[in-house]
Amino acid sequence: MKADLIATRQSILNGEIHPQAVAEACLDRAQSSACKDVFLELTPETLLETAVQAAPFESPLAGLSVSIKDLFDVQGQVTTAGSIVLQNRPPASNDATAIKRLKAAGAGLIGRTNMVEFALSGVGVNPHHGTPAAWDARTEQAVGQQHQAHVPGGSSSGAAVSVATGAAFIGLGSDTGGSIRIPAALNGLVGFKNTARLVPTSGALPLSTTLDTVCALTRTVRDTVLAHEILSNRTVPSAHRPLAGFRLAVVNTLMQDQMDAQVGRAFERSLATLRSAGAQITDIDLPELLELAPMMSTGGFSPAEGYAWHRQLLEKDGARYDPRVAQRLLRGEGMMACEYIDLLQARAHWIERMTLALQNFDAVLSPTTPITAPKFSDVAPGKERDAEFFRVNGLMLRNTSVVNTMDGCGISLPCHQAGDFPVGLMAWHGAMQDDTILQLALVLEPLLN
């Protein structure tokens, strides 16, 4: 595994390496076959210019490479959200808030990453710009030839592969139903979805104004803490609580259903490892999770709120959308105002019940996704594969979307063994429990690795 951002920054401060050399190495990776279909636009001049300046050396990011999901406005660049429908938009006149904060911290922006069109899928497929191949960031090589033909997860697909391959140290992305944590799990990375309100979404093209969250992918938890502190403009307090000091739950309801064999083995092995290290883990039933499907039966937030933004574009240019994305957005066309208001109220009551049910625990542990990365050939664009695509997409989003619906926070940590396809373990809880989840993740990471 490549050195993380914090270790690389320390090497820069020690005079062992110059940021320009690091930037050039990242650009080499970005232009290699490992990053095929990862970047929609590379900005080598921007990265190198930041790296050669003296000022960033003392900054948190020290001019190191950060990739930007094609969802965020960068002044002078066109934000297309992975679509061809928006390719003729004028360049952004201002930076998104997240971009401003990254630049202020000394980030070297390497380029814009590919994504699921308009961020509306957890699989990672893009019919317009190609689909990056999932990558095993732990071994720095594909797990056999078949690995190259597996999807990276979405919607922050390019962001994940840019970090896993070494082209970037941080991949800025978004998480509306799992779009950071799913690709983290499928690429052996750390992906943290903070409480949505902690990071402004201004300058990011919206999908769901209720659920959209700005966050990032990294290689290690300590890099994740740094990225979150920059994006949220706050400090995560240090803590020295031992593993036994955390009250942990494992949910038997829904979240372990339909696990494939590799995920099942990795999850059970991880729980056994944590228990042997002193973790106090309680198995619980959480029947509230069974209420989610009926609650979302009229379409859910993303189609309703997404359709509100897209309706004129769909009328004018709907034939140029990814048909699967258009199909999901059009579900929002039929939602009545009363149904939307009912959904808002149902969610609020559900959050209250979930908060009460989990009040005695510091975090819940579950598989990030119940399956490993599917083969691209099984879910590639084409009507004949639509049924399998939507089945896989539902499975991919099932566990992670619980956290978004709860307005909570969650982190995906790699928990697979070397040689296996990447698997993620998710630690999560409700709103504003971010510090506890990050502190726990720092304790879990060395045990899971």
TrEMBL record:
Residues 22-438 form the Amidase domain. It comes from the Bacteria. SUPFAM superfamilies: Amidase signature (AS) enzymes. InterPro entries: Amidase, Amidase_CS, Amidase_dom, AS_sf. PANTHER family: AMIDASE AMID-RELATED, TRANSAMIDASE. This is Amidase.
